[in-house]
Design brief:
Length: 492
């Protein structure tokens, strides 16, 4: 695959606008933001630099869609059918979208292809769930009938990051639309071309005007304008804890709710009786996938002291064989997203060296990978001292920190010894022990003898502690995007 097989021209043209009421319009300020291909280190597209007036227009379009337009009049069944059609359209355009995603993010083609399967699946899942969200009746005083229903908020705002753009699009918009909200999305400036293309596909399958509006642009401009906009009724955000504070503060000022997913420092807890043949490939992939730029990356490898050497020998052997390359090389990992992120990850390496943390193994950047690409060879450090930055900070890069633990109680203490609490993995042949640990670990999701589980669209996902609050994915996400109303009827 050469660079020319990327569907460049068509997409770039579409990408230089804001998408409101199913139409591309120039951003009011007419400014653009350059989009850099991380594997090449060069600009290959431009997106509109949306701003406050664009967000205003998008919110108005969404409000009109939900209160007066066709969208607001659709039944749950009809909304669901549209979402399923969009899922099918994504599946039908999967290769085109995967190429675009791969160029925009640098990820290997196999990962980009898997992402499109997941993106389509979000719309299939939420499309088929749209007419299955029931309320309940509640026994109350004699002479009363009490019923609850889940009522859409109205207009929901969505701000997503650059690591899995198409999947994030489905994850955040799928449930919001299924519940009948009209949406305004601010995708990430570093990678958002598939979001723009999927919005076009949505219009193509008959999504009514104003249901999906997209304002691309910079976080501090388009993103801040959306977060602060008094016309939105709820906001969903995935990104850094720092920006999460800003989003939550803005939501508080407008007295609206929010769901925040803010990253993690997820532990993989390996006991001596774990099946290493199963565990080791999963442990390595959990940090290498997407070059470690995954909120739920398994970035801490906690190993029972008695098995430390054995486990590490196997992990190191695998780590040393890892290779980073371009999307078309389709190796273990791609580059990180931009020069700033590369510098940040390398900063962790320098500090580890200064702190005397042993570097145990390094993968390689493949021969032929462009010198200007933002490649980082994956690394494993260990034993990382407890409290060291590599043991507690989210790196968002292909770096694994190995730390030994003494016993079960120590494992739980260590697993919970970060500010984050997103995902955890427990590996043990002793089911009772694995269950005990799973229940004590502070994380929104815990896997036992598995990790990640293929997209997991059905599985509620979200954080504890600094990883955020609220739940995405699964049925829980539908409940996030609606207000529960209790109707009390006195009939006697
Ligand atoms: P990351 O470190 O993963 O880039 P960010 O939190 O900076 O995480 O970005 C996630 C999303 O939040 C992106 O779409 C970005 O444009 C947006 N963003 C960044 N700063 C702000 C802000 N001040 N207000 C609203 N959105 C923002």
């Amino acid at each position: 695959m050469s660079a020319s097989t990327y569907p460049e021209a068509a997409t770039v043209q579409a990408a230089e606008g804001v998408f409101i009421d199913n139409r591309w319009e120039p951003a009011t300020g007419r400014g653009t933001v350059d989009v850099v291909a991380p594997a090449e280190g060069r600009v290959f597209a431009r997106i509109a630099a949306g701003g406050k007036p664009d967000v205003d227009r998008a919110v108005k379009a969404a409000r009109h869609a939900v209160e007066e337009g066709h969208w607001g009049r659709l039944s749950a069944l009809e909304r669901g059918r549209l979402l399923m059609k969009l899922g099918q359209a994504i599946a039908d355009h999967a290769e085109e979208l995967a190429l675009l995603e791969a160029r925009d993010t640098g990820k290997p083609m196999k990962q980009a292809r898997a992402d499109m399967v997941a993106a389509a699946r979000y719309f299939e899942f939420y499309g088929s769930a749209a007419d299955k969200v029931h309320g309940e009746t509640i026994p109350f005083l004699p002479g009363y009938l009490v019923a609850t229903e889940r009522e859409r908020f109205g207009v929901t705002g969505h701000i997503i990051p650059w690591n899995y753009p198409a999947q994030m699009f489905g994850r955040t918009l799928g449930p919001a639309l299924a519940m009948g909200n009209a949406t305004v999305l601010k995708p990430a400036e570093d990678a958002c071309l598939t979001s723009l293309r999927i919005a076009e596909l949505a219009a193509g399958v008959g999504m009514p005007e104003g249901a999906i509006n997209i304002v691309p642009g910079l976080g501090g401009e388009a993103g801040a304008a959306l977060a602060e906009h008094p016309g939105i009724d709820f906001i969903a955000f995935t990104g850094s804890p720092e920006v999460g504070v800003f989003i939550q503060t803005a939501a508080a000022r407008n007295h609206i709710g929010c769901v925040l997913e803010l990253g993690g420092k997820s532990p993989q807890i390996v006991f001596g009786d774990a099946d290493l043949d199963v565990a080791v490939p999963v442990l390595v992939n959990a940090i290498v996938q997407n070059a470690g730029q995954t909120c739920s990356a398994g970035s801490r490898l906690l190993i029972e002291q008695s098995a430390y050497d054995l486990v590490m020998e196997r992990v190191i052997e695998r780590f040393a064989r890892l290779r980073a390359g371009t999307p078309e090389m389709d190796l273990d990992l791609g580059p990180v997203i931009n020069a700033k992120q590369k510098k940040r990850v390398e900063g962790f390496f320098s500090r580890a060296e200064a702190d005397g943390v042993p570097l145990l193994a390094m993968g390689q950047v493949a021969e032929g990978a462009p010198a200007d690409g933002f490649f980082v060879a994956p690394r494993i450090y260990g034993p990382v001292p407890r409290g060291n930055r590599l043991a507690v900070d989210e790196v968002f890069g292909p770096v694994l920190s190995a730390i030994p633990f003494e016993d079960e109680a120590d494992a739980v203490r260590l697993a919970n010894d970060t500010d984050y609490g997103l995902v955890a993995g427990v590996w043990s042949g002793n089911g009772a022990r694995a269950t005990r640990v799973a229940r004590k670990v502070q994380a929104g999701q815990v896997f036992v003898n598995a990790y990640g589980a293929g997209g997991g669209i059905e599985l509620p996902f979200g954080g504890m502690k600094k990883s955020g609050h609220g739940r995405e994915k699964g049925f829980e996400a539908l409940y996030e995007f609606a207000a529960l109303k209790t109707i009390v009827i006195k009939h006697d």
